[in-house]
């Protein structure tokens, strides 16, 4: 509606007003920057306060006499720029309420004019409603500080469209924020990183916008080393973004991330030799640098006002204090936020073992990470301060990633921790649930102690391992509702217990006492992650312990067969939804459970019960004479003919179960009738490339287990047994 008027009037007036107001404010800022108070330069944070004087003078001398003209210009600007949809809604609503469409004067051709206009205005109202709702959902910008960003994005899009209308195709606020990072303006960079950090905190994934540009990532990493007081907000936002990207960053490509050769820049005071490690500095050192900053000049912090709308918002804040909370930008949350973000960055970087080596070799960094664990005041601190507990939890997460690093890096760190008596004492105290430590800390401590116990070079005693397994088993078997234990802690206890029992024989009496309760955890009503841990623990017990074969046949095996059989519905649902192969955590967990149940079945059949006992259990579960069980194995095999690690493991387990049964003269005819060999041959063709890649897995123990036996060997053995 307002396009014709806007195309001619708005660009000229808007550019004139923006340039004029920006020039006035910039001149005022420059003048104030060279003034002194008691012989000292005016601090940068006071410049904005003194700006209100020239702004008021400018408004009195220039704006008030031109008020009628300015009012008309701003009305046009509002209607054309951001009020068009609102104006359309208002006009449509007004016309529907008035319904003054005139008379048709008996003209038959105008008989449908009024109904048509009603429909037309209703469609405009619906369009306006959809526009408002969709805009709010698309941007998801909180009201507290979103208006300034929306104004910036509005001017950016308007100018870009004015130069080239086709250039705004695919334009989004996230792309706009990324472009601001490349700017030389301090204000633009601050707006860009703050916007991106906000989008990340809301769950947005911006990695595809940043990872292709090495220079942008390097710029963000360099920002972490800035020590200026005024750059605190920039550092916090940049740390959030780097933490988001850290899992995909290889430190070797960014020499300034952990260890920087740019010592000259560090001496100049702009950067630190280690950008990320500066986030772990204590508040005392930060305070020292803050005092130094007050004596330094930062010209990039004295840039002019970004736009007339910014000035208008700031003036409105002064006139209407109640408006301040609406446009207020997020404030800095202090040193603790920087420390937590730094620990998050290190944790995600440590997912790559090459990064682990760089982190461990950085002078002084590892000692900072270990400091809370080795502190004599650790337990007292986490009980008295939730902030301290958060920092300790962050350092524990980093340690969990570092001690799992293969090779000498992880081994030396494990030895260093195990040799520190204070560290071991603190870990044991945290695992003691009576001391008040949070469950998050208990989970991390449990993971660290488990890794220490699994390393033979730490010389962990059998008594210590047994006590640890008893603690883990006790937590794993607790009732979540009555014992107020989180599901995550219970799952962690089960997972770490499964790791320990795979390498250490548990106490036989303890196993017999907990056998029934562990078996009940296999029930489908329990959380799937708990069921996975329970399956792994039971398999380890079947391998290492002398279990009562009668209890295994009557109690454990029926639960295992029920779990395999009940997957029929889940498999059918996955077939109906082929949008992703293990595309979410639930599907991946379901397949992991399926593989665990098949592995436990193989162990039970090979080591604990006779073929006749197994056949008896199969018949009791309603699987007939084995025909349905063999058919189920073939179905599972065909469903998992996909190039994924989990599917390869499941296919090999199905083949191993088949060979084990037929070698003991069971179900040979059923496997032959079901065409099991043909299905296995088809799976071998599909998975041959993946299987050959796994042969090069040097450090991953789980992948080594999957590597053997080869599918070709299983195929030959099954073919030979079938005849």
UniProtKB/TrEMBL annotation:
Bias kind Basic and acidic residues: ranges: 567-577
Keyword set, alphabetical order: Membrane, Transmembrane, Transmembrane helix
Family matches, as InterPro entries: ARM-like, ARM-type_fold
Residue stretches spanning the membrane: 49-67, 74-94, 114-134
Region Disordered, residue ranges: 567-588
UniProt key word Membrane: yes
Annotated PANTHER family: ARM REPEAT SUPERFAMILY PROTEIN, CONDENSIN COMPLEX SUBUNIT 1 C-TERMINAL DOMAIN-CONTAINING PROTEIN
Name by which UniProt lists this protein: Uncharacterized protein
């Amino acid at each position: 509606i307002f396009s014709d008027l806007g195309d001619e009037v708005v660009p000229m007036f808007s550019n004139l007003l923006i340039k004029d107001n920006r020039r006035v404010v910039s001149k005022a800022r420059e003048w104030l920057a060279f003034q002194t108070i008691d012989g000292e330069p005016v601090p940068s944070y006071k410049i904005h306060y003194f700006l209100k004087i020239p702004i008021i003078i400018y408004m009195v001398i220039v704006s008030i006499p031109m008020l009628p003209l300015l009012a008309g210009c701003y009305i046009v600007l509002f209607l054309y720029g951001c009020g068009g949809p609102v104006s359309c809604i208002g006009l449509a609503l007004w016309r529907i309420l008035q319904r003054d469409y005139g008379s048709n004067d008996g003209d038959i051709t105008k008989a449908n004019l009024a109904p048509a206009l009603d429909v037309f205005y209703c469609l405009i109202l619906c369009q306006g409603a959809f526009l408002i709702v969709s805009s709010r959902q698309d941007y998801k910008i909180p009201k507290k500080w979103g208006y300034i960003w929306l104004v910036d994005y509005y001017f950016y899009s308007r100018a870009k469209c004015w130069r080239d209308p086709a250039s705004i195709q695919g334009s989004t606020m996230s792309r706009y924020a990324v472009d601001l990072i490349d700017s030389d303006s301090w204000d633009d960079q601050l707006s860009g990183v703050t916007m991106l950090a906000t989008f990340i905190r809301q769950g947005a994934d911006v990695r595809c916008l940043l990872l292709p540009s090495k220079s942008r990532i390097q710029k963000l990493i360099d920002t972490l080393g800035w020590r200026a007081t005024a750059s605190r907000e920039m550092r916090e936002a940049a740390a959030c973004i780097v933490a988001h990207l850290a899992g995909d960053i290889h430190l070797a490509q960014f020499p300034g991330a952990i260890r920087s050769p740019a010592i000259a820049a560090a001496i100049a005071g702009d950067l630190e030799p280690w950008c990320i490690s500066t986030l772990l500095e204590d508040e005392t050192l930060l305070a020292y640098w803050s005092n130094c900053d007050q004596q330094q000049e930062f010209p990039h912090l004295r840039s002019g006002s970004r736009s007339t709308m910014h000035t208008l918002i700031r003036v409105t804040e002064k006139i209407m204090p109640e408006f301040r909370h609406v446009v207020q930008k997020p404030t800095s949350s202090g040193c603790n936020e920087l420390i937590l973000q730094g620990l998050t960055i290190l944790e995600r970087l440590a997912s790559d073992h090459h990064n682990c080596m760089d982190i461990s070799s950085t002078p002084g960094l590892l000692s900072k990470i270990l400091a809370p664990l080795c502190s004599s005041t650790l337990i007292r601190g986490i009980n008295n301060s939730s902030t301290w507990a958060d920092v300790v939890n962050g350092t524990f997460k980093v340690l969990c990633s570092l001690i799992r690093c293969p090779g000498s890096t992880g081994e030396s760190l494990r030895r260093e921790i195990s040799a520190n008596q204070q560290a071991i004492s603190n870990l044991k105290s945290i695992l003691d649930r009576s001391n008040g430590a949070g469950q998050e800390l208990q989970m991390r401590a449990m993971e660290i102690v488990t890794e220490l116990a699994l390393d033979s070079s730490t010389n962990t005693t059998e008594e210590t391992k047994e006590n640890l397994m008893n603690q883990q088993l006790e937590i794993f078997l607790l009732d979540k509702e009555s014992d107020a234990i989180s599901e995550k802690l219970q799952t962690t206890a089960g997972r770490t217990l499964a790791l320990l029992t795979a390498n250490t024989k548990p106490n036989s009496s303890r196993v017999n006492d907990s056998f029934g309760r562990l078996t009940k955890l296999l029930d489908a009503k329990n959380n799937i992650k708990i069921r996975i841990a329970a399956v792994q623990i039971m398999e380890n017990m079947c391998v290492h312990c002398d279990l009562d074969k009668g209890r295994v046949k009557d109690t454990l095996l029926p639960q295992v067969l029920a779990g395999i059989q009940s997957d029929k519905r889940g498999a059918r649902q996955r077939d109906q939804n082929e949008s992703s192969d293990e595309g979410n955590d639930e599907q991946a967990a379901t397949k992991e459970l399926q593989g665990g149940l098949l592995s436990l079945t193989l162990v039970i059949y090979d080591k604990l019960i006779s073929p006749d006992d197994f056949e008896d259990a199969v018949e009791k579960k309603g699987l007939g004479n084995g025909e349905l069980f063999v058919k189920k194995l073939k179905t599972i095999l065909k469903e998992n003919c996909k190039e994924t690690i989990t599917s390869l493991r499941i296919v090999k387990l199905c083949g191993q179960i088949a060979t084990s049964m037929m070698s003991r003269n069971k179900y040979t005819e059923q496997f032959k009738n079901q065409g099991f060999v043909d299905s296995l041959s088809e799976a071998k063709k599909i998975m041959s490339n993946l299987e050959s890649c796994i042969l090069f897995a040097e450090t991953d123990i789980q992948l080594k287990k999957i590597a053997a036996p080869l599918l070709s060997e299983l195929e030959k053995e099954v073919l030979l047994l079938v005849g």
